[in-house]
Amino acid sequence: MTENATQLRTSLAHDHHRPVYHFLPPRYWMNDPNGLIHWNGTYHIFYQHNPFGALWGNMSWGHATSQDLIHWQDLPLALEPTPGGADEAGCFSGCAVNNNGIPTIFYTSTRGSRNEVQTQSIATSRDGLLTWEKHPANPILAQVPPELGQTRDFRDPYVWKQDDHWYMVIGSRIENGLGIVLLYRSNNLVDWEYLNPLLSGTDIRHGTIWECPNFFRLGEKWVLIISAHTGYNTDTVFYFVGDFVNHRFIPEYSDVLDYGTLYAPLAFENEQGKRLMFGWLREARPDADQRKAGWSGVQSIPRELTLDQHNRLISTPIAALQNIRGKHHTHRNIALGTQTTLDVRSLHLDIEASFLLQQNGSCTLTLAQNSENGEEATISYDRAKATLTVRKVFREINGALSTVTREVPHELAADEPLNLRILLDGSVLELIANGRTSITSRIYPQLAQPAATSLSGSNAQLLSLDIWEMPSIWQ
Ligand code: DQQ
Q1: In angstroms, what is the span from residue 407 Cα to ligand 1's centroid?
Q2: For residue 211, how far is its CA from the centre of ligand 1 (angstroms)?
Q3: Which of 133, 325, 365, 418 has the greatest number of C-beta atoms within 10 Å?
Q4: How far apart are CA 85 and CA 81, in angstroms?
Q5: Distances, alpha carbon 102 to alpha carbons 132, 166, 208, 394, 417, in Å
Q6: % of the chain at pLDDT higher than 70
Q7: Catalytic residues
Q8: What does the pLDDT read at residue 3?
Q9: pLDDT average, residue stretch 168-187
Q10: Span 34-47, pLDDT tens digits
Q11: What's the 3-state SS for 368-403?
Q12: Which of 30, 118, 156 to mutate to test the pocket of ligand 1 (most atoms within 8 A of CB)?
């Protein structure tokens, strides 16, 4: 598998849309991160994978390991549908736990031509997480609480241990209603008792199906993450922060986890007690282009999650990414004006930028800029409007220029600088402002080069700009 995987990766390496320092499979389709676990010093990522093509289907669990969450080793499939089994139509998303030394996967098993029978199953490994045995009692949870009024959206188990009990949350929806997260309890991981809804949706903006719930303690608070589905499309990821009392979650603060393409994130605790999260970065191009490319879907760079004093979720790309940074470009203390082109030409960059803006100040950083064909991605902040904007101007396959703009609220405190972290990697553009506002995007520049970088603004000062060129993690 590994040798073959290397050949497959090499055969796609010419594609300048393909990221070089983000994780993705050797080829074909990937969506949600699954089963993240740190086991005896080794990180394992599993992921929703179609082993037969570049579009969603045949849902199986792909598998790779890492020592640093940056460099990866490809491994054989961990889970595939069993003909005639509870998962004959698919092995959907789930998590992994350490059950007293026995690695145990929880996943949603599906049957039916439209995956309409959704149940929960488990699998264990006896050879260090390489191969997995499905439990003979699968599905270990098949019954949907009757008050839901539907049986087809019941998925994505997330399991943790607390006070000698195992707990599990599952994403679902109320028929003709909104999303819901269900709470269960068990003593043995096989028999589960339904307790109550952990949280029920009250706002249509939060979607009609809640997928991939994550629920965990962070400092003094509890955090619930849900991926909102509209009933037609995967949409936006939200988070809630609050208290967990008598099996009920009482949210005090809620916000958007990402305004862009990041979906179905999965957070886990590593052996040092840090809460780390990966998210699926969805493609933003037609199916035909994904099929032609031969691959689809990327994982975000893992982010460490913390809370600030206002209970806002702070996302920080893991420090290990700094270890692979290459050539460094640095600029300090520049009063911003008309556009200045910087001496950086690459589609693979890690950028840290800090700006001080007056009340009417604004600033723009332009990436992947091609003056010949008019393509560019701009990241702008407008202090008066308190908005952060990503504007993408790229050519369609037919040659026409198209513009996609995403403008989102981002408030700065009185003396707070605007701090941007930007990870550009081929077609991936991750942007995090002051740790708390995240917009991930996908861009598909027509040409690999030139991809210039420039800076402009008014009534604003660049305090510092550090840009590192980034290498491939596969060489
Ligand atoms: N993807 C999985 C489901 C999950 C959805 C299927 C979220 O388990 O709800 O591939 O992207």
Answers
A1: 27
A2: 7
A3: 365
A4: 7
A5: 11, 14, 36, 49, 47
A6: 99
A7: 32
A8: 63
A9: 98
A10: 999 999 999 999 99
A11: EEECCCCEEEEEEEECCCCEEEEEEEEECCCCCEEE
A12: 156
Burial class for 418, CB neighbours closer than 10 Å (0-12, 13-18, 19+): buried
Provide the token pair at 458: 């008014």
pLDDT tens digits along 305-318: 999 999 999 999 99
Beta-carbon count within 10 A of 133 CB: 11
Helix (H) or strand (E) holding 328: strand 328-335
Q: What is the DSSP pairing of strand 401-409 with strand 452-469?
A: unpaired
Average pLDDT, the chain: 96
At 354, which amino acid appears? S
| Of 257, 352, 278, the residue nearest 47 (C-alpha) | 278
Question: Could you tell me which residues come within 8 angstroms of residue 346 by beta carbon, excluding any fewer than 6 positions away?
Answer: 424, 451, 469, 470
Of the chain, the end-to-end C-alpha distance in Å amounts to 17
d(CA 260, CA 365): 18
Q: What is the pLDDT of residues 222-272, one digit of tens each?
A: 999 999 999 999 999 999 999 999 999 999 999 999 999 999 999 999 999
Structure tokens at 3: 């040798």
Most informative mutation of 47, 91, 92 for ligand 1 (most atoms within 8 A of CB): 92
Sign of the C-alpha dihedral computed for residues 316, 321, 65 and 58 taken in this order: positive
Over 80: is that where the pLDDT of 457 sits? yes
